[in-house]
Design brief:
Largest sheet: 4 strands, antiparallel
Order of helices and strands: EHHEHHEHHEH
Helix content: 25-40%
Number of strands: 4
CATH architecture: 2-Layer Sandwich
Number of helices: 7
Structural class: alpha+beta
Shape: globular
Number of domains: 1
Bound molecules: ribavirin triphosphate, magnesium ion
């Protein structure tokens, strides 16, 4: 199995719920290493740029408003099959459809306030990691 990296964001709702550590524990428990990490409050331009792929979608405006509503924690995770492993830990986009024991089932309130983001492909993971971290701030092990 290939060692991959993925970009993960703990969204404003989960930061406000004080569950950063619990979410980090799930990553570590699944064998994902945190190889870069930063807490930040996204500007509107940063959020719009990050979600540019969704710019034409009806939920784009609400998504951007939500993502700038409070601080987030952004991390790069590294490990075997990291992209899919991380998405399995997150659960379905809509927490009502998320499997029991997933981050979204346990911590998310709605499809908008859904606790976490995770890259959906190797190509997007590379783009998204570079969006937040210069190579010198990713500490591969
Ligand atoms: P994410 O990108 O945040 O990891 O989530 P995802 O892949 O599961 O979902 P995606 O389709 O990429 O959508 C990005 C975020 O937009 C919000 N969304 N709202 N109201 C809606 O129908 C709707 N659909 C998506 C969610 O917050 C989702 O995480
Ligand atoms: Mg997505």
């Amino acid at each position: 199995m290939a060692i991959e990296r993925t970009l993960s964001i703990i969204k404003p709702d989960a930061v406000a719920k004080n569950v950063i550590g619990q979410i980090y524990s799930r990553f570590e428990g699944a064998g994902l290493k945190i190889v870069a990490s930063r807490m930040m409050h996204l500007s509107r331009a940063e959020a719009e740029g990050f979600y540019a792929v969704h710019a034409a979608r009806p939920f784009f405006k609400d998504l951007v408003e939500f993502m700038i509503s409070g601080p987030v924690v952004v991390q790069a995770l590294e490990g075997e099959n990291a992209i899919l492993k991380h998405r399995d830990l997150m659960g379905a986009t809509n927490p009502k459809e998320a499997a029991a024991g997933t981050i979204r089932a346990d911590f998310a309130d709605s499809i908008d306030a859904n606790a976490v983001h995770g890259s959906d492909s190797a190509e997007n993971a590379a783009i998204e990691i570079a969006y937040f971290f210069p190579a010198s701030q990713v500490f591969s092990r």
